[in-house]
Amino acid sequence: MFETKQTPKGKTTYSVEFKWRAVQMYIEEGWGYKRICQELGIPCTKTIRLWVKRYHEHGLKGLEERRGTSKSPFKGRPRKKECSLEEENRRLKAENDYLKKVTRAGKEVKPKERFSIIQELSNTYPIAWLCQLAGVSRSGYYRWVNRQGIVTEKQKENEQIKQMILECHQKVNGIYGYYRVKAWIKRNYGKTVNHKRVYRLMKELGVQAKIRRKKPKYKAGKENIVASNVLNRDFAATAANQKWVTDITYVPFQGTYLYLSAIKDLYNNEIIAYRISRSNDLKLVIETVKDAIKKRDARGVLLHSDQGSQYTSRQYHQLLKAHHIIPSMSRRGNCLDNACMENFFGHLKSEMVDLPTFETEEEMIEAIDQYMYFYNYERCQKKLDYLSPVEYRIAQAA
């Protein structure tokens, strides 16, 4: 019997006699590689080809086992159990310098960043030490080094998308988050990009949407006529001029306030009327409602508001009754009953008012007018299939 052995890693080693018998069967007896494998139980014909080649080149010595016999000082890592005090100190210094670099990042260091740190310290310490400290392989590090300076197609595409993101961020004053930026790119460039990719590239660019500030709470005034909550948080509308919501918000300006009253159509979130005044009074509300009546057919529309003193006044209810408008009011102290209107004011303040500094009241009013046009005609909304309110209304009417 010829000797064969199984290594701890599951590989089979063959004795020189076993290999010589296989070579004899090929050279002297004229057997084919496949037949020899079947006869001797060798899994691959390439093994016998290699033995025959080595026999022709080196004779019987070429059939001796070569694994683990390398004497070259340049192959493999040196494995020393003992090292000098100087080398041990140098290793500790390498570990200290590497940890300093990692600590400065202040976050979980990704493999690419680790490779960059290794490259930075490679002139001072051996690559093998640094890779061990970083928990990466030397082959992975050298692959990263070889890829430097080579721009892939994906990297080129990412750079193009970054330019689109910056263009969008500039055009909309930085109010779009990654979902709306994705829709803007699709709309203006016809390019479909995954929202997670947009988020990652925005993070790399340091681009972030403006965050809305919370609206301060107001003390409820004394009511006169309180309508029931007909809307009851059913903010969905199947047609235009079916459900309107209205409210008043303050706009800070040079230590004082301007007051903005607006009416929104829940069908497409379009602002159909708004007024700006120095006073938060009944006249502001009445004029806003009259503007909406002039622009739209208000007969039978449901108009929802909170229980502010303007909306509970007799004059307000007489105006609604005269034009066959159905009043609806939120419950006392429950702003969520009119959440959709609160939501719009939040967007307005974060996307327009909080950005620039206005020197005159006229500049402030002009900026609000520009934002209202932008909101109605250009600002895309996820609820509207990423169309603007006016675009959605026209598309549904077609």
3D architecture notes:
This protein has helices at 16-27, 33-40, 45-58, 85-105, 111-121, 127-134, 138-147, 153-171, 178-189, 195-205, 282-295, 314-322, 339-353, 361-377, 389-397, and strands at residues 4-6, 12-14, 243-253, 256-265, 270-277, 302-305, 326-329. The radius of gyration is 38 Å and the shape is elongated. It contains 15 helices and 7 strands. Helices cover 48% and strands 11% of the residues. By secondary structure, it is of the alpha/beta class. The longest helix is centred in the N-terminal third of the chain and has 21 residues, at 85-105. The relative contact order is 0.07. Helix 1 (16-27) crosses helix 3, helix 2 packs across helix 3 and helix 5 (111-121) packs antiparallel against helix 6.
Assembly state (oligomeric): single chain
Major sheet characteristics: 5 strands, mixed
Mean pLDDT: 84
Strand adjacency order, main sheet: 5-4-3-6-7
* First-residue to last-residue Cα separation: 89 Å
Number of strands: 7
| Gyration radius, rounded | 38 Å
Shape: elongated
Derived from helix and strand composition plus strand pairing, the structural class reads: alpha/beta
Number of helices: 15
Portion in strands: 5-15%
> What are the segments in which pLDDT stays under 50 over at least 5 consecutive residues?
70-79
What sequence of helices (H) and strands (E) makes up the elements?
EEHHHHHHHHHHEEEHEHEHHH
Helical percent range? 40-55%
Question: What is the element layout, followed by pairings?
Answer:
Layout lengths: L3 E3 L5 E3 L1 H12 L5 H8 L4 H14 L26 H21 L5 H11 L5 H8 L3 H10 L5 H19 L6 H12 L5 H11 L37 E11 L2 E10 L4 E8 L4 H14 L6 E4 L8 H9 L3 E4 L9 H15 L7 H17 L11 H9 L1
Parallel strand pairs: 3-6, 6-7
Antiparallel strand pairs: 1-2, 3-4, 4-5
